[in-house]
Amino acid sequence: MPESVASLKRENSKLKDQLSVMADEIAKMKEMLLEQSKKPAATNDEVEQSLEFMSKEYDDFERFRVSAGKELDRLGAMLDEIAVEVNRVSRSIDEFQEYSYQYNVKIVGVPQLNQDESSASTSELCDRLFKAIGSAVSIHDIDTAHRVPTRSNDNGGPRPIICRFIRRLSKDDVMNHKRNASKVAPSAVGLPDGASLSAVRIFDHLTPRMQKVLFEAKRFKEQFRYQYCWSKGSLVYLRKDTTSRAIKIKDITDLHRLTNGRDRFEPSTHKIQ
């Protein structure tokens, strides 16, 4: 994904945080004004002659309160308009990412050729793997391929590969043969005999947002005893059992709707890296 889009997502996230802070501050101001208006006009039994002055002071405060309330309402309306625009930009970014990611596959479990494996070497490794699983794609169908770091690499395992295709059809052809990946002989892809490809898996490359949705859907599966949870294309699916239909999960709100009010499902604070 272009760095400019990643930067735009960070800026959009910061803007959302600022909007949230501003909305909280306005709510606090409204609450303070409401509490102040509930207070009775001050009196002083020892200085009764000050009552007229205090009444005028209270009237002035009432005018200020009404004026301030109108101004706060105006600012609140402006914040609502900005929030709508922020959400529109967020959706546009998500759509751009989903379109871009549909040309990618994520491959896990492939041993590295060396510690400093180049993008060209990784692309050639992918090409040999795809041929070995029965796919008709060639090196010319691959735009780029590279290793990506993960938090689980501390155990010394190979880093996952993100492979981007020039055409969507090439990616679909690889996905149609993905089940053969763990059966490939290491020598067929240029790896030493001591290497193993038994743990190789090929997945659709989900956007960060959909990775989060998949993570939460798996938690939902365990909590509500669903039998199946998987991703395909750019969507996540849940299935209660073998006799039920597959349910598309596009965002976290879909998981909330599945509970039907019987139980409460709270998304975790887990962050996808």
From TrEMBL:
It comes from the Eukaryota. Residues 5-32 form a coiled coil. InterPro entries: FP_C. Residues 207-258 form the FP protein C-terminal domain. This is FP protein C-terminal domain-containing protein. Keywords: Coiled coil.
